[in-house]
Automatic annotation (TrEMBL):
GO terms for molecular function: DNA binding. It holds the Pfam family Kelch_1. SUPFAM superfamilies: Kelch motif (SSF117281). This is Galactose oxidase.
Length: 829
């Protein structure tokens, strides 16, 4: 593991600029002299430290612009064509250029200084104290200057193409005397004040490094089917979350979650684990002595597994060793016993074997943290919970020893034991090892309470000492049903935490957190916990999960809630590329509603049907059977009295003779019944001349019916409408009236709630309700108004502006006319 030496244990501060990948309105700009220009005299210098954001793709763009009273400007830009920093004066290159690849500036600060002489008019450019270029200027320079870094929104020549950069310690000298100094050490605010003359610079959309190096950002939150497990590809920076009907891939660098719908559901028994190695993703349960491999082309695992198996190796540590292409599993807990077994699966032979260990005694345990050396032939293991002889009844206790396991020899070597802390703690399952600095990064948590938290620590590989870093992460702990993993992606220099909570075997609640590396020391106890820094990660919209969490903290009981999984782009198997899914931030310690087991019919969002065992059987509905099913179901819901055979024939088989239509109807009803038999008790019968399809609500949940049954309980209703509008991507001419009717009912209901409770609802709740309205009416001016107002209350001004601009553009595309209400008017109306 290569960790930047120059950044290790160093205080990080400065201003990061949002640039590429962000809406121009949301890009960072620093106006150093917003009111009056500074008077330069005969000679002045501009000096600052700069670095580039890792793994940003293109580094093209403006760094700063100086503009005098004659509207002449001097720019510093990074030119990707020449791979050089270049000084431009007006419309001409000055010839001052520093040829250097972006790597020179990535993750390491470089000191730049530009001197401007009035008589004669000339420029001198320095890097790290060394003069790298001089050039005369064609025109005489002025004496009053304005200065902007990044996006320039002032004056006639606005610029939004800025380099992905970081800035700190901005200084201005007059006649070599320090006149202004902006350290940029703060962690909040939209201004920065110089420490010499109190000159206030104004900053649009700032990202303060002092904040993002200390606070975790929640970058993902969703619920998925089955007992999910996690693996990490450290080369590509991909976190894999293996679920029963899907494979989730979180791209750490792009901050995007992709979802592959599996072509067939996969058994994920309780306690299953996943690991990535040699360009392959593996899933296994040690008890079954089988390992399945994911086939990306088929969107399926290569072997079916018994979903009802249960492990006796809970919280075992695992790793992949490249030197022998094997998966190692160490320790674990089950059947009231802790174990210190070491098991090995050789990929080449597909054989499991027990490893005969030697060396120091390794106490049977679980809840330890494991991290491998760079070449993967050895693993450090720290802490855990266990007992000397493995019996849970005989003095189980916390362990704080650090061991090195050599996979080549099977030997354990005890390195040290940490002092027993005042408050005992256990460890997350994985840790990050830096062998060059002889240190490790691990997660600790209190395992004696359910509402716990994860604390990142940095420890030594040679001495029994450690330091707490960054703010804690909320962690819902319930022994074998909770899990935490820590990974490091070197190219983006980000730590990633994945937490899993499985309240029952049917679902897993997944949370993703990231922080820039190296994280800062833990601040005072009142430092806020993880928040969604919307600018840094580009999360423009708030999630309904925010609100549900807020409401569930007030109201813990919900009648028969449904799962709210991340919605697949297509419920049917797809051989196409994975679909990016918006990642939804949410507040700390959010209690999630657990879905009731059994059959479920989702009509909100994409049409999806789960059988009584929780398997996704949507693919069993052929296009014709699906339309017949929806035709019967929607005409059978309360207040509707069914549908006649003639109406079915006319809708599905127009132009056919009565006999042909009857035959087709009979055949397809038989096909439909074969599918419905997998759900549970139902009746499909004729009442007079009309067909009625009804399900036993105790056995089959229908989200649309549950929505109406939850009248007055807005938290429950938001759970359902968060999936999307009614039957999105399902289009039939006869369906339009249903969509219109339900959309009108739902949007009217939610708008009334917003109008009557604007002053009572927190902004997160208003955003969640507005999002649900927009699921049914994307051009609801009222919903956009409430959402923008709520975002402004949260001080997410750029996000609010972006929502408005997107709405305005869509309005003009649909109606062919300009949306006349200006942004400010929308906020105050």
């Amino acid at each position: 593991m290569l960790i930047p030496r120059h950044l290790f244990a160093q205080e990080e501060y400065g201003l990061q600029f949002a640039s590429k990948g962000m809406d121009p309105d949301a890009r960072t700009g620093m106006n150093v002299f917003p009111d009056q220009p500074f008077k330069a005299g005969n000679q002045f210098s501009l000096a600052f430290d700069i670095s580039f954001i890792p793994n940003s793709g293109s580094y093209f763009g403006y760094i700063f612009r100086l503009t005098d009273e004659k509207d002449q400007h001097i720019d510093l830009v990074y030119n990707v064509r020449t791979a050089a920093l270049e000084i431009i004066a007006g419309d001409d290159y000055t010839g001052i250029s520093i040829k250097t690849p972006p790597d020179t500036f990535i993750s390491q600060w470089q000191h730049l200084r530009l001197r401007v002489d009035k008589v004669p008019s000339a420029l001198t450019f320095e890097m790290n104290g060394r003069v790298v270029g001089k050039a005369p200027l064609r025109s005489a320079v002025g004496g009053k200057w304005r200065l902007s870094f990044g996006a320039n929104r002032y004056g006639r020549d606005k610029t939004f193409d800025l380099a992905p950069m970081r800035l700190r310690d901005l200084k201005i000298f007059k006649e070599n005397e320090l006149t202004y100094h902006w350290p940029l050490r703060q962690s909040t605010g939209h201004t920065a004040t110089d420490v010499r003359q109190h000159q206030v610079a104004v900053i649009d959309h700032p990202i303060w490094l002092a904040y993002v190096y200390r606070n975790w950002e929640q970058t993902g939150a969703f619920t998925t089917m089955g007992n999910a497990s996690v693996a990490f590809d450290k080369e590509k920076g991909t976190v894999y979350i293996c679920a029963r009907d899907s494979l989730f891939r979180y791209d750490v660098n792009k901050d995007i979650l992709y979802v592959d719908s599996l072509s067939k559901t996969q058994g994920l028994p309780a306690g299953n684990q996943s690991v990535y190695g040699r360009n392959a993703l593996y899933n296994f349960l040690p008890d079954l002595k089988t390992v399945t491999t994911y086939d990306e082309t088929k969107h399926a695992w290569d072997m079916q597994v018994d979903n009802d198996s249960v492990t006796k190796y809970w919280h075992a540590n695992r790793f992949y060793a490249p030197f022998d292409s094997a998966i190692y599993v160490i320790g674990g807990y089950g059947n009231y016993r802790y174990t210190n077994e070491v098991q090995r699966y050789r990929v080449s032979t597909h054989k499991w074997e027990d490893v005969q260990t030697s060396g120091d005694t390794y106490t049977p345990r679980y809840q330890a943290a494991l991290g491998t050396t760079e070449n993967g032939d050895s693993a450090y293991i720290i802490g855990g919970y266990g007992s000397i002889n493995g019996d849970q009844l005989l003095n189980p206790h916390h362990l704080y020893d650090l061991h090195l396991f050599d996979a080549r020899t099977g030997a354990f070597r005890k390195i040290y034991e940490l002092p027993v802390p005042e408050h005992p703690f256990a460890f997350g399952n994985t840790m990050v090892i830096d062998t060059k600095e002889k240190s490790f990064y691990a997660l600790t948590f209190d395992n004696d309470k359910m509402e716990s938290s994860l604390q990142l620590i940095r420890g030594s590989l040679t001495r029994p000492v450690y330091t707490r870093l960054a703010t804690p992460i909320p962690f819902r702990y319930f022994d074998i049903r909770a899990r935490a993993e820590l990974f490091y992606y070197e190219k983006a220099q980000r730590l990633v935490v994945v937490t899993l909570f499985t309240p029952q075997n049917h679902v897993t609640q997944v949370r993703l957190y990231t922080i820039l590396f190296p994280p800062a020391l833990l601040a005072s106890p009142d430092t806020p916990g993880p928040r969604s820094h919307w600018l840094l990660w580009g999360a423009i919209s708030a999630s309904v999960l925010v609100t549900i969490g807020w409401l569930f903290r007030r109201k813990r009981t919900v009648a028969s809630p449904l799962a709210v999984p991340v919605i697949h782009t297509n419920a049917l198997p797809s051989s196409g590329p994975a679909i990016p899914v918006n990642i939804t931030p949410e507040p700390a310690a959010m209690p999630m509603a657990s879905p009731a087991p059994g059959a479920t019919i989702f009509l909100f969002g994409h049409f999806t049907v789960l059988d009584k065992d929780g398997n996704n059987i949507t693919r069993l509905f052929s296009p014709l059977v699906k339309e017949l099913f929806l035709l019967l179901l929607l005409h059978s819901i309360p207040d509707r009295k069914g549908i006649t055979s003639d109406k079915i024939n006319e809708t599905l088989w127009p132009g056919r003779s009565g006999k042909d239509a009857r035959n087709n109807r009979s055949v397809n009803i038989v096909k439909l019944k074969n599918v419905l038999d997998k759900l549970g008790h139902y009746t499909l019968e004729k009442d007079g001349d009309k067909w009625l399809l009804n399900f036993d609500p105790g056995q089959v949940k229908i989200d649309l019916l549950q929505y109406f049954a939850s009248a007055g309980q807005i938290a429950d209703q938001l759970v359902f409408t968060a999936r999307g509008g009614l039957l999105t991507e399902t289009e039939y001419s006869w369906l339009d009236k249903f969509k219109s009717e339900f959309s009108t009912s739902i949007t009217t209901h939610f708008l009334q709630h917003l109008q009557e409770n604007t002053d009572k609802y927190p902004p997160e709740l208003a955003i969640a309700i507005a999002n649900s309205i927009l699921n049914f009416d994307a051009l609801s001016e009222e919903a956009v108004m409430f959402k923008c107002r709520a975002l402004v209350v949260l001080k997410q001004h750029a996000s609010a502006r972006a929502i408005y601009n997107s709405f305005k553009k869509e309005y003009e595309n649909i109606y062919g006319e300009t949306f006349e209400k200006e942004y400010q008017a929308l906020l105050v109306d």
